[in-house]
Amino acid sequence: MNIIYLHSHDSGRYLQPYGHAVPAPNLQKLAQEGVLFRKVFNAAPTCSPSRACLLTGESAHSCGQLGLANRGFYLVHPEHHLANFLAGQGYETALCGVQHLALDARELGYHWVVEAGSPAAKDGAGITDAAVEFIHQPHDRPFFLDIGYFETHRVFPAPGPDEDPRYTLPPAPLPDTPETRYDMASFKRMAKMLDDHVGRVLAALDEAGLADETIFIYTTDHGLAFPGMKCTLTDHGMGVALMMRGPQGFSGGKVVDGMISQIDLYPTLCELIGAAKPAWLEGRSFLPLVSGEASEVNEEIFGEVTYHAAYEPKRAVRTQRWKYIRRYDDRPVVTMPNIDNGASKQFLMGHGLSQHPVHPEALYDLVYDPNEAGNLVHDPAYGDVLEEMRARLDDWMQRTDDPLLAGPVPVPAGGFADHPDSPHPGGSETTEKPAWFTRQKLDIRP
Q1: Residue 159 belongs to domain with CATH number
Q2: What is the residue range of 130's domain?
């Protein structure tokens, strides 16, 4: 069985198959032919950590990816990476595009590499060309193909004629203003570009006659790059799309409502291909949800941020009903460099965003407050729930040996982070950029 793992940047669930007015006909077709999962969450809503969790089956602090790879954070055990594991199972492994975890993709287990930024993959079209080339090659063994797109990461293109800002609704955490409507219309334009790439890959799979023997996975790393979304532990940051199509029940337009963490994908793939699950996996297979044997496989899932552009240590636990978030610094206001710049941020900066308060602890009722806007921590009516959720989080942190339990987590030697008072990412580093910050991208085709 072949595996294609196709992922986009910063897309959340703001796509047509999830009911949003963001046209994505190729992803819609994928959902209607496969299985759409409505309650999937990353384990760390920032770029490198979220990918590391999915691709190692471990929490970010367990695998060591507590911040961005391009800022000096790294996997402690790259041999745990899914590509390395599948190579050990006899798979041919390939990367086309973004990986955002290692300076050299080969240490992660990829043998055929056309990395984003290389001469052949300077944009999404080049990444797709490389992926199509790989799919059409003769294969004498099953393959794992990782296709990573920059879309829908900022900077967004200007809206096209099909993305009129006048008739666009901004994402849920933001006010409806001309600035936020324009920003969302620009996102929709880039989402169309992403969907076009997906369509070309799916067509290549059909042309090569491989669709029936390939598990095709689409997902993303975290929520949209808008204020109150990416890098937050609310569902606006942790909620992600997941659609899968292929043999062994991944067909027929099913919709699954069970709660899943992205760390559950690795053990699910192990079960699909009949491989023994490695001991380090923290997730569990969600095949019982697909087969209909169970309605849930998780009582709780967890999320974390330690570093993005700047240090912002926080942890969360989520059940179907409740979300609990705890911060581990004493900063009383938002950490500005952890919010990507754009029209929406500029609008909010004009309305005091840099002094907007944050909660040291938060408890949300996800049934009556799905936007996580009403903090119940200080409401005595929810005291028992609060203590239960605190205990769930404490138990997980202790069980997984979270380094935050020992105090503040430093930047790795040679790494760097922005000062938390910097207005934007990259505006003010606490240390100099290391020599390896700029590098040549790999283009290795055997």
Answers
A1: 3.40.720.10
A2: 2-300
